[in-house]
Amino acid sequence: MKKYSGIAILLLIGIVLSAWLKKPEATAPNIIFIIGDDISHDDIGSYGNPLVKTPNIDRLAKEGLQFNNMFVTSSSCSPSRTSILTGRYPHNTGAAELHTELPAHLTYFPEQLRKAGYYTALMGKWHEGKNTKRAYDTLLAGEKLNGLGGEDQWINVLQARPKDKPFFFWLSPFDAHREWSADNFKITHNPDNEVRVPATLLDTKATRKDLASYYNEIGRLDYYIGELWKELERQGVADNTIIIFTADNARAFPGNKTLLYDRGIKTPFIMKWQAGIKSQQQINALVSTIDIAPTLLQLAGIKPAITIQGQSFASLLKTPEADFRKYIFAEHNWHDYQAYERAIRTKDFLYLINLRPELDNGGSIDANQSPSALALKENQAQLTNLQKEAFIKPRPTAEFYDMRSDAAQTNNLINDPKYKSTINQLKSVLQTWQTQTGDTNPLKTTPDWYDRETGKAVPAKDIRGEMPGVARQADKINVKGPF
């Protein structure tokens, strides 16, 4: 508290102004939305990783509701976040590519909460665009204000908030994004015996050290979640506060971030609300992150904006065993490198198309140039087929997986005649989704900004092409598409 006492005083001055807004119902829940950076679902203890140290997140799951099939719409930082903010698919946001900004004409769900009388604040990472400022009473962005992990202001703002209003916090830590900065924090992991090397990586000393540093950042984030929880309890508001933990996309390692397999788009999502959710429950239904906005608005007693394409899953909080979505849709657009992939996933099957098959799928530049990636590149003769995936080109134009017998999605059955009818059906639904929501495949998309081998910037860096959906003004299309 002492470190940022001056900022806290300024917060008090600004925060009191928000008390003049319309007040919502006294029973309206507080909402804390914690979105980790580049964290895979299977790198959390409650999701089956016994080595990563996440006691506070695990406690959230034990005392709340864990979603086992929550999927991001894009395994890419800002497109995933803008999708959550608007409740829209990336190509419908006008910001389908990394580092592109949301347009002013869309509605952001924290903005609706603010207009309804919530005190709203964002702390940490913020790259959804200047127009989103209007959604927050308090916006504290960047490492200078929030510390290396992005959590330094959490307690300050919680203490300084107006006490006569419900609050919504978008907590956006930098943990666990490269470059690593938590190796000297109080929670650490021994690379020799406290990391689990995924099948997509080679088990080397460098890879283990890389993973341990990644785990350390998850551990730091978990620690601050625990501190936040203590403060909520100290203030007596924990019971009527919805606490959500999730992530924008998968870990920044080869075989994960930006990819449209489960190891890229499945994300952790845990929801605790003492006053509204029974403890120790799990949801196996398919849910998309575009469904978060309408759900939280419904729980706050607010009608979702007409621009929201997602649908509320509030009913699952009472009947967690029920089904929800039949289809999950996801997209891979430019993220450091040119790309155009689309996926449709059901309970049992994954079908995806790749309209840039001549390009490899090495992931984001931070994954592509990591020590773990270097270990793969230096030992290609030893690699399994799964480990070679990052380097293969040309790639298939279409892929199909049967998760009933292939949970890891490694056996492409696109040419198996036994599945012809299922493949055609999924292909048809995917095309319907693209048509109804205004998705397009531009001839001239944004090119690579970095060399795929060396990672060095190329002459085309900072040149933008046409984004998917622009030609059909998809940012003005509100059709929800198949559900």
Automatic annotation (TrEMBL):
One of its GO terms (molecular function) is hydrolase activity. This is Heparan N-sulfatase. Keywords: Hydrolase. It comes from the Bacteria. It comes from Emticicia agri. The keyword Transferase does not apply. Residues 29-134, 152-302 form the Sulfatase N-terminal domain. Belongs to the sulfatase family. It holds the Pfam family Sulfatase.
